[in-house]
Design brief:
The chain has 279 residues and is of the alpha/beta class. The chain has 5 helices and 15 strands. It has 2 domains: 92 residues, Elongation Factor Tu (Ef-tu), domain 3, CATH 2.40.30.10; 153 residues, Nucleotide-binding domain of ferredoxin-NADP reductase (FNR) module (Rossmann fold, 3-Layer(aba) Sandwich). α4 runs parallel beside α5.
C-alpha cells in the first residue's frame, strides 16, 4: 500500500452542492438534558428541510467575535421549519453555544456530508450509540418504516441520551453503562454481540452506529464476523466542513487492494464498515 499518495488526498466530492445552504438561523429554545448535555433548537427554513439522516451542519456564533465558533454538529431533529443539535459542553465553543438564548443568531452551513442509507423493507435495523452518538441516529429511526432496536451505552446513567425519544417512535431500547447505574453493566458492544448471535429473524439485519471510535471499531468487527452490513458514522475534528482543508481524512479501501484518503466531512461521515481501514 505504501505511504501517503498526494493524488488520493482529493477524491471526488459526493456532496450535492445544490443542497448546500448558508443561512443565518435564530435560536428558538435551549434545553438542559442533564449534566453537561444540551439541546438547542434553531429556526431554519433553508437547511432544515434538506437534511437527511446522518448529515451534519457547521455552526458559527455570528455576534460573538471574541470567540470564532465554527463547529460541526450532527443534526438531531429536523422538520421544514427548524432543526436541533444535541451537544456536550467540552470547550470554549460549546460553552458559548450553551449560553445562547431564544432570539440569538448564528451562522449555519449545511446540510453537509453523506449520511445513512435508509434500511430496505426486508432489513431489521439495529442501532448502536455511544453517548450523544444517539442524536445522529434519531432522524434515521424517525424515517425508517420498520421499528428496530437501539443499543445505547455510556459510562454512567447521565450519558444515556434520547432513549425516551426512540421509545416514542416505537423502538425497543436497550441500555448499558460501564458503572451499572442504568441498564445492564458492561460495554454496549458486549450486549450487542450476545443479542445478534442469538437473534433468529425472518428479516436480514443491518447495523447503524455512531459513537466513540473504539466502540465503532468493535461494532465493525462484530458485523464482519457475523456477515452483517454495518454503517458507521465517523467523528473527526473538522476545519472547514466542506472538504477543502483535509483536516479530517480517514484511510479507506480503494477497491483495488490498496487504500486512499477519504474526507470524513465530504465522502463521509458514514461509511460501510468494510470500507474503513481500522488501525
Amino acid at each position: 500500500m505504501g505511504g501517503t499518495r498526494l493524488g488520493s488526498l482529493m477524491p471526488s466530492c459526493r456532496i450535492r452542492r445544490k443542497t448546500l445552504q448558508i443561512e443565518t438561523v435564530t435560536v428558538l429554545k435551549q434545553r438542559v438534558l442533564g449534566g453537561d448535555y444540551r439541546v438547542v433548537k434553531f429556526a431554519s427554513k433553508k437547511i432544515a428541510p434538506r437534511v437527511k439522516p446522518g448529515q451534519f451542519i457547521h455552526l458559527r456564533v455570528a455576534e460573538r467575535n471574541d470567540h470564532v465558533l465554527r463547529r460541526p454538529f450532527s443534526v438531531f431533529k429536523a422538520d421544514r421549519q427548524s432543526l436541533s443539535v444535541l451537544f456536550k459542553i467540552i470547550g470554549k465553543g460549546t460553552e458559548i453555544l450553551a449560553q445562547m438564548r431564544p432570539g440569538d443568531k448564528a451562522g449555519m452551513i449545511g446540510p453537509l456530508g453523506n449520511g445513512f442509507p435508509l434500511p430496505a423493507k426486508n432489513v431489521y435495523p439495529v442501532f448502536v450509540a455511544g453517548g450523544y452518538g444517539a442524536a445522529a441516529l434519531y432522524l434515521l429511526a424517525e424515517r425508517t418504516k420498520k421499528k428496530g432496536t437501539l443499543f445505547i451505552g455510556g459510562r454512567t446513567a447521565e450519558d444515556i441520551l434520547c432513549a425516551a425519544d426512540f421509545k416514542r417512535l416505537g423502538w425497543e431500547v436497550r441500555t448499558v453503562t460501564e458503572d451499572g447505574s442504568a441498564g445492564q453493566r458492561g460495554l454496549v458492544t458486549d450486549l450487542l454481540k450476545g443479542y445478534l448471535f442469538k437473534k433468529n429473524e425472518m428479516y436480514q439485519t443491518a447495523l447503524y452506529a455512531c459513537g466513540p471510535m473504539g466502540m465503532l471499531e468493535a461494532v465493525a468487527r462484530i458485523a464482519m464476523a457475523g456477515g452483517w452490513k454495518a454503517w458507521i458514522s465517523l467523528d473527526r475534528h473538522m476545519g472547514c466542513g466542506v472538504g477543502a482543508c483535509l483536516a479530517c481524512v480517514q484511510k479507506v479501501k480503494d477497491g483495488s487492494g490498496g487504500w486512499k484518503w477519504a474526507r470524513i466531512c465530504a465522502e463521509g461521515p458514514v461509511f460501510e464498515c468494510r470500507e474503513i481501514i481500522w488501525e
